[in-house]
């Protein structure tokens, strides 16, 4: 997220962000992505184009912001009773969502309209937060938990690399192998 | 690379590609990236704009093609006498090149103007070819070599993920840890 787009929940700024984001989502569904323009979006959102330019810079940065919001997980990771089961379920779901046509589009949008890499960082933070929640729950059960950075390197990075660069099999079996590799490094954080 | 841009070396098609790519590189240095347009590039390259549109579709796809060419390694990986030394040297160099401002720009360009993901696949193929050459050399020395897919998952993917999503320390020590993790999986390909 660019500094411009920082908001205080409930304030006018947050309301503008919400109505502009909603206008993008609605118009994308109605007229298609290639027909989106800042004046069109502003008119639908009931703001002036200059409000949009002042806040987001340009269309690409706005689309990047909207994409990141869409990538935000809407629930904490499900509890399947063990670290392995939780990680496997999360990994399979993450791979499915991110490798879908919509998921790929949002990831590309997030990366591209984002010179400062803040939005890409938010995408990574979402995954990190979910993995952290899984780890905290597992530690509460007395399980040995890999470092968060290990989970990002060993589970998330290979999925994202394949989604972006190497369209290939992202099966449940592959997700399971990544999780197994990460669990093999639990309890030896000095190794990460 | 889009199907349109496939060329036979030495033919007219290859000459057009070369002069258009050169025009992009020259103009980018002279007028800056944001001022690039297809008519400007075509004029410099001595072709018609319609030649460019026919072949590349639009400016974004052309920039993607140029970016991928720039990411192509210009030499085989250096021989440092052992698998570990070769992998460490390659990994450090790859991290340095890809995380530079120019490297990041080329990666983003390659990903962006590439609806079919062919150019992103070429970026990955370049890394895969270099790692394969290192592995063939190591096998010739009698060393146990990890599977190529393991090297991509354990070494390349974490670097690329951090470069794109999680700007963070990409030190020589970090590269060394990635290589050590990959070497720990040499000779157990069923594990990958």
UniProtKB/TrEMBL annotation, chains A, B:
<dbReference type="InterPro" id="IPR036271">
    <property type="entry name" value="Tet_transcr_reg_TetR-rel_C_sf"/>
</dbReference>
<dbReference type="Pfam" id="PF00440">
    <property type="entry name" value="TetR_N"/>
</dbReference>
<dbReference type="InterPro" id="IPR011075">
    <property type="entry name" value="TetR_C"/>
</dbReference>
<feature type="domain" description="HTH tetR-type">
    <location>
        <begin position="14"/>
        <end position="74"/>
    </location>
</feature>
<dbReference type="Pfam" id="PF16859">
    <property type="entry name" value="TetR_C_11"/>
</dbReference>
<protein>
    <submittedName>
        <fullName>TetR family transcriptional regulator</fullName>
    </submittedName>
</protein>
<dbReference type="InterPro" id="IPR001647">
    <property type="entry name" value="HTH_TetR"/>
</dbReference>
<dbReference type="InterPro" id="IPR009057">
    <property type="entry name" value="Homeodomain-like_sf"/>
</dbReference>
<keyword id="KW-0804">Transcription</keyword>
<keyword id="KW-0238">DNA-binding</keyword>
<dbReference type="InterPro" id="IPR050109">
    <property type="entry name" value="HTH-type_TetR-like_transc_reg"/>
</dbReference>
<feature type="DNA-binding region" description="H-T-H motif">
    <location>
        <begin position="37"/>
        <end position="56"/>
    </location>
</feature>
<keyword id="KW-0805">Transcription regulation</keyword>
